[in-house]
Structures are given as structure tokens and as C-alpha cells.
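Q: What residues go here?
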């Protein structure tokens, strides 16, 4: 039996681009879930019957997710409605802001120059002429203290990824002790056949017992455009995982 939300429950609807829209459940008839048509839909990309969607709602153990397709659109008493037909069983995700999916393949982490906290930029110090003149001196001091040079590229294995962060395992045999929390980096990896090169900051460094590799959590500091592109690929991987489990 498919686990469904209750009538009146607030829900979120994710489209194939990974975008999220707010709605509520208006009615449930057998397996058809009727929701209010979201009000913030993209004008230039109208939804049509057959579009694949993810319906999410909150329950005690986490966030429930249900794959469905748009079966029909209609209007009832001036309210625009969507009829959603589930295409499989629901599942539960951990409570986190963004969906995370397992990933694989080799990737790289490159140290970049600059303060990862962005404090200088926020205060306007980066506009001062003296900052640019002192940058090389600061970089040399960091190297002397054990931090990796900005040009250093480290090899790693991608573990999982969301639109906001990734986890990776560093390849052995590298002098990576300078990859500490707060260091600004540039990451290069692929998800779903798409290549990404995204800036970020090392959020966590997890030292493992040998011979297990050291793992990093990198939080992205990317543009909205890059976030949208990555979200789309994460959504596609998530749907493919559900199809594989049903098969």
C-alpha cells in the first residue's frame, strides 16, 4: 500500500529541474492525490499531463517522498487543481535542507587563494590597494605554516552530493594535511554525465583509521545558476534510483 499524506497537509512538489513549489492536499480518492496548483509556477515552462514530479511532506521520522506524475489539471469552484498519480512506494529522507544522493567517480579538489569566510569582501577591504599587494606575502606565510599552495590539486573519490555540498574521500599518498576546515577550494566532478567546476569551502574534515581515506565535506559557494544545474542532475539521479529499486 502506498503511504499518502492526509487531506489538508502542506506539501512540496519538486519538478524535473529540481525546483520546489509549495501546495496543499485538497482531496485523496483511491490513489489519486489532488493538490492545489502551486501559484509560483514558471510562466515559460508550463506543466503538462505526464510530467514526472516528486511530492514531499513531513512526518515524524523525516521527510516523506513520493514519485508521481501529473495525471490531470482541472478547476473546481475557481480553485485550480492538479491530480497526481503515484508511480511507486513512498520513502523517507533524513531531515535536511537539500536532497543528497550517492555518487561516484574521480574528482579533484584545488586550493584557491583568499579568505574562505568572505569577511574581507563583506567589509570592503578587498577593494583596498594594500590588500592585493599583501596577498602574496600572506600566501607565502600560509605555505611556511604548512598550508598547501593555492595551485595544489588533490585527487579524490566522490561519495555523495547535493545542490549545497559534497562528500569525497581523498586519494592516499598525498600531502593533504593542509586541507583543513575553512580552506577555500575549487572542486571538479561529474554528476549524471554533466561536468561541474564549483567553488566552495571545506566544512568538515574526517580523519579515518588507516587504511581508510580521509573524507572531506565541501560546502559550495556557487551561483544560483550553478545551483539550479546541479539540482537538476541530483533530481535525475534520485528518480533513477527509485526506478531501479522498483525494477
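A:
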Amino acid at each position: 500500500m502506498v503511504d499518502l499524506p492526509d487531506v489538508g497537509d502542506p506539501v512540496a512538489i519538486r519538478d524535473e529541474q529540481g525546483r520546489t513549489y509549495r501546495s496543499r492536499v485538497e482531496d485523496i480518492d483511491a490513489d489519486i492525490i489532488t493538490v492545489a496548483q502551486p501559484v509560483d509556477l514558471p510562466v515559460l515552462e508550463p506543466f503538462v499531463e505526464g510530467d514526472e514530479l516528486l511530492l514531499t511532506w513531513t512526518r515524524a521520522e523525516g521527510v516523506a517522498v513520493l514519485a508521481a506524475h501529473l495525471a490531470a489539471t482541472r478547476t473546481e469552484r475557481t480553485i485550480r487543481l492538479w491530480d497526481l498519480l503515484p508511480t511507486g512506494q513512498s520513502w523517507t529522507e533524513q531531515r535536511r535542507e537539500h536532497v543528497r544522493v550517492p555518487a561516484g567517480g574521480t574528482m579533484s579538489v584545488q586550493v584557491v587563494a583568499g579568505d574562505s569566510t568572505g569577511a574581507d569582501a563583506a567589509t570592503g577591504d578587498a577593494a583596498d590597494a594594500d590588500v592585493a599587494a599583501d596577498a602574496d606575502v600572506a600566501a607565502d606565510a600560509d605555505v611556511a605554516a604548512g598550508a598547501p599552495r593555492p595551485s595544489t590539486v588533490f585527487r579524490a573519490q566522490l561519495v555523495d552530493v547535493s545542490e549545497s555540498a559534497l562528500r569525497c574521500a581523498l586519494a592516499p599518498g598525498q600531502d593533504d594535511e593542509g586541507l583543513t576546515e575553512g580552506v577555500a577550494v575549487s572542486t571538479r566532478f561529474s554528476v549524471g554525465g554533466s561536468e561541474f567546476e564549483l567553488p566552495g569551502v571545506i566544512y568538515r574534515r574526517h580523519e579515518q583509521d588507516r587504511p581508510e581515506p580521509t573524507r572531506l565535506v565541501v560546502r559550495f559557494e556557487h551561483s544560483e545558476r550553478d545551483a539550479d544545474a546541479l539540482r537538476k542532475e541530483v533530481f535525475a539521479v534520485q528518480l533513477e534510483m527509485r526506478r531501479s529499486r522498483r525494477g
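A: Context that may help when evaluating the design: The longest helix spans residues 224-246. The longest strand covers residues 62-76.
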